[in-house]
Structure formats: structure tokens, C-alpha cells
Design a protein that fits this description.
about 280 residues, alpha/beta, TIM Barrel, about 30% helix, six-stranded parallel beta sheet, three-stranded antiparallel beta sheet
């Protein structure tokens, strides 16, 4: 009889939480300070062609300071976070030819890598627009995941990370109810909470307390939650999906370099990189 195998996140936790924020405005500095305060992580999706611009925009009928961080600030402000791509000037790649779309993605990716000194492997779709061709372009350009703006209101792990639907926007009226469900649900299956937004939206409404209230609440459950960036979650899940398993499910081989956690027959185990696990 086969053994029941369930993926767990780093440290044997069943839950993971990440934040994904777009556009790289000056308010990201305050957002990063809140993340540091509560020892949490986020992914910031930047437009390299807009960095350094100082401007106001009317967004949703509100006069908004849309000023961007300076290029030289990117490496320090996001030092403990992930920097991801959002095209050069916030242009949607949907509707572009394959060559033009690839150029837009690669130019932004290269510029952000120059600024951070780190590979850029993720993406957020500008305006939330995506299609099959956009996914093909991203994959060909070395992008390994792409976040949409389609809230799922659930905690499912994406099957296709190039269509990563977040759980909800930070302004969702059900945010705290989702937080309560996430933290208190005793489901044996792994759960992933992804919040997205734009930091200037807090400045528009002067409601930073919404985010801090959420952070305070989930912080009380940190023994159950892995706080990670988007790419950390993607790397972990993909590595787990590469586990090799015997026919009866009792022998596992980890061909990756990553330590992986799992539950088998109601017992929690970990298997280190390039090691074998054999259940008694």
C-alpha cells in the first residue's frame, strides 16, 4: 500500500505568506520598513524606465504622488527583498509582437539586474493583462513566474507559476477574514497566501494601518507560517515537484540542492539535497 506524501514548506510549516507590490514608487520605503518591523518579505515589481521620475498622476480620481525611487536606491532599499520585473515603462506585453515583447522584457530584466547585482527571475503583468503568447515570451526570456491581478480568494498553490493568481489585494474588504481563515485553518494541505497591491495606494487613502493590522495578526502565528519572497516559494515548490519516488511511495530521492520538508504517514520529515529517504 502506498504512503501518503504531503508537501510542507521550509521548517516543516504548512503555510507560506508573501507580498507582491508593483511600480517602485517612493512609498515602497515605508512598506519595506513595515516588512522589517514584522520580519516579513515581499517582492517588488519595478519599471526600470520610470525610476527617478518625479510626477503626480490622477489615479482613480485621486491626485497621487507617483514619484519613483532613484536608480541608485534600488539596491539598498530592496536589499532584503526580491526585485522582480514589470516591463520598462509599465507597458503591457499583450498585443505586442513576439520580438517587441521579448525586447521589453529583456531590457527591463537586464537593467534591474545591473541595479541589484542579482538575477531577476519573476514578473508581474502590467494592468494584469496576460495571454498565452505573453507567457511564452516570459518563459523564453528566463522569467520563471508571473503574478496576475486576478484575486483567487483562496490559498491554493499555482499549478502554472506563469499564471500566479494572488489571494487578494490589500484593500479587499475580506482581507482580515481571509487572514483568520488562513491562520486558524487546520487543513493538512499546504496553503499559500499572496497579497498584492501598490504602495502609493496606502498614501492615497492614508490607511497604512490596514496593512499593519494584518501584519500584527499573522505575526502571532509565525510558528506556523513561512514568510518568503515569491521566488523563494517558486524555487521551493519546483524543487519539491522534482522529488523522485518509488512505486510504493516509500523511497524518495531529492535530486536538487534544496532541503525539502514533507509529511508521510502523519510524520514530518526533511530530506536534504541529493539525499535519499526511505520510510520504514
Amino acid at each position: 500500500m502506498g504512503s501518503e506524501l504531503t508537501m510542507l514548506f521550509e521548517g516543516g510549516k504548512r503555510k507560506a505568506l508573501t507580498f507582491s507590490y508593483d511600480d517602485g514608487t517612493i512609498y515602497d520605503k515605508k512598506l519595506v520598513s513595515l516588512l522589517k518591523k514584522y520580519d516579513m518579505k515581499a517582492t517588488f515589481n519595478l519599471n526600470s524606465g520610470l525610476l527617478g521620475q518625479k510626477e503626480h498622476r490622477m489615479i482613480n480620481g485621486i491626485d497621487t504622488d507617483f514619484s519613483q525611487l532613484e536608480p541608485g536606491e534600488v539596491k539598498t532599499v530592496y536589499a532584503d527583498q526580491e526585485v522582480s520585473s514589470h516591463t520598462v515603462n509599465h507597458s503591457s506585453i499583450v498585443g505586442l509582437s513576439q520580438n517587441m515583447g521579448a525586447a521589453e522584457v529583456l531590457k527591463n530584466k537586464q537593467r534591474l539586474e545591473e541595479l541589484t547585482g542579482r538575477p531577476v527571475r519573476g514578473f508581474a503583468y502590467p494592468y494584469g493583462s496576460y495571454n498565452e503568447l505573453a507567457e511564452e515570451i516570459l518563459s523564453a526570456c528566463g522569467i520563471e513566474y508571473a503574478r496576475t491581478a486576478d484575486s483567487s480568494n483562496d490559498f491554493d498553490i499555482p499549478q502554472d507559476f506563469l499564471e500566479w493568481h494572488p489571494t487578494c489585494h490589500h484593500d479587499a474588504p475580506e482581507l482580515l477574514k481571509l487572514a483568520e481563515k488562513f491562520c486558524n485553518d487546520d487543513s493538512l494541505q499546504p496553503q499559500l497566501f499572496c497579497i498584492w497591491g501598490r504602495s502609493y495606494e496606502f498614501a492615497q487613502k492614508d490607511n497604512w494601518q490596514v496593512l499593519e493590522e494584518f501584519m500584527k495578526y499573522v505575526s502571532d502565528y509565525r510558528e506556523k507560517i513561512w514568510f518568503a519572497t515569491s521566488i523563494e516559494i517558486v524555487d521551493y515548490v519546483k524543487a519539491f515537484r522534482e522529488l523522485r519516488c518509488s512505486s510504493d511511495g516509500r523511497i524518495l530521492q531529492n535530486p536538487t540542492e534544496m532541503t525539502l520538508w514533507f509529511e508521510m504517514d502523519r510524520e514530518i520529515h526533511c530530506i536534504h539535497g541529493n539525499e535519499k529517504f526511505e520510510s520504514l
